[in-house]
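The data layer described in this paper is built around a simple, fixed record for each protein. Because each token names a local backbone shape, the row as a whole describes the fold. We quote a single record here, exactly as it is kept in our systems:

***
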Amino acid sequence: MIRHRRWLSLFLWCGFSQAVWVVVAQWCNLPPIFAFNINDLLDLNVYANGSFKYKKGLHVACLTTFWCLWKARNVVFVQVPCSVQKTVEDINALSFMWLWHMSKQPNISWEIWNGFKLHKPGS
């Protein structure tokens, strides 16, 4: 139970994580995210409206956010300050790189990814 609370604190409850998720939601053209557990975040793409490409991009952005929050946590232990802006920039760049390199047809440009214009209805 204690370990579970640590994960929730790291990825959901701390102010830094919440600020990162707010910016990621804005970037992904989502309304504010209200997550009560980690599965709520992992399933964002399942319940989002949009094309397969949009949902895939959303899932990659979500997984990259977890990775970058974990990385930011480790940086704190060596007493290097981290910022929400730097973390979100890392999420944006790493998720693009991961999606582009892992895609069977890497036909996505940085401009499309940076604006998260992946065929979501109404955007």
Observations:
- Residues 2-114 form one domain.
